[in-house]
Amino acid sequence: PRSPRGNTSKPLRPSVGSGQLNPLEKWLDPEKEVSVLYASCNDPLHPPENVINGEQHTFWSTTGCFPQEIILGFKNEIRIAEVRTVSINVGSISLQRVIPKKTGAPAITDQWKEITVTQINPEGALDSSQTESHKLNNVSTKFLKVVLLSSFDPFAAVFGIHVQTSDGKWIS
Asked: From CA 146, how far away is CA 31, in angstroms rounded?
């Protein structure tokens, strides 16, 4: 299969913890600290990669149905202290990480485990920037799924997903 970026030559690397190759590994960009591996919707004018490009005025736009999700992959396994999301019209967010089913099992059996769910205050949410801080207590993962469970409008936008590691470094 081809990646959204058209690059099929990336080598597969084993996922930490499972001892097997994780299918998400093939979408990682080895030159970046974080990559967008998957998004449930894609507007070419507002692509998912905008959530990690560091630009304040670009965003990923949902296509009107919920839930919507985006999966981020990190170059190395990290310990996450905090995730900060900047969005508009988002009602609730679930953060999830990959948990290997059992040691030695094929990586395809890895499961997503919810870390936290945040209900966002609707006051001022419509057409106003929402910055939410999700404290994660140094959760270890290589893949982070951000699920927009609901919104206050048919469409929502995510301007940024910023991850702080346990050593205080911000990745976005």
From this structure: 22
